[in-house]
Amino acid sequence: MVKEEVLLVFNKSRKAYLPEYLCGIFLLFVLGFVYSQGIYLNQYVVLFIVGISLFSVGSAEMSRMMNKYIITQSKLLIIKGLIKQHKKNVYFYSLGFVPDINIHQGRIQRLLNYGSISFSGAGADSFVIKDINRPKQMIERLEDMIHQNRKSTHKDRES
Q1: Measured between alpha carbons, how far is 81 from 6 in angstroms, rounded to an integer?
Q2: From CA 132, how far away is CA 157, in angstroms rounded?
Q3: Are 97 and 125 in contact (CB under 8 A)?
Q4: What is the pTM of this model?
Q5: Can you give the pLDDT at residue 125?
Q6: Which residues have a Cβ under 8 Å from the Cβ of 114 and sit 6 or more positions away?
Q7: Alpha helices, DSSP H only, in the chain?
Q8: What is the domain partition of the chain in residue ranges?
């Protein structure tokens, strides 16, 4: 079994979790502001606020780690999960026969330059790469790799 060179490894964008991060930071800011005004809160209230703040940021980071995308010379590997993982190999040659490759971005996603790329075709070839940075550049890179893989496959068949 030949091990392929990994070209790129990426996760979901942190921009997709901006509300969670802002909520956690805002709660800590409010707590700091209250203490700067000389108001002392019950220890349990402080622990509750810090806990919610850490949970907000921690859950966003955990969700990011649950999805990993790896690009090699001939395939895209989609890994979901941490302990129990689901891996899907998507070969670029088979992607050459997928009729639709689209970018999905909402208004805020467009402003922050992140979004999702969907590949839809007949049957099992459909999947989505969610919430990645610079989806336009990523789709161009994937299309180039699909094209290169098609060329090399056609050369192999002619030989």
Answers
A1: 20
A2: 35
A3: yes
A4: 0.75
A5: 60
A6: 13, 15, 16, 105, 131, 132, 133, 134, 135
A7: 18-36, 43-65, 92-95, 107-112, 135-158
A8: 6-11+89-158
pLDDT at 155: 61
Question: In the structure encoding, which two tokens stand for residue 127, read together?
Answer: 């999947």
Nearest to 10, CA basis, from 137, 157, 148, 105: 137
| Residue 52 in this model has a pLDDT that exceeds 80 | yes
**pLDDT at position 127:** 81
Q: Tell me: the pLDDT tens digits for 120-144? A: 766 556 788 899 999 999 988 888 8
The span from the CA of 92 to the CA of 150, in Å, is: 8
**CB burial class (10 A; 0-12, 13-18, 19+) of residue 83?**
exposed
Q: How far apart are CA 81 and CA 87, in angstroms?
A: 9
In the numeric block, which tokens belong to residue 47?
A: 């622990």
DSSP state of 73: S
First to last CA, the chain: 23
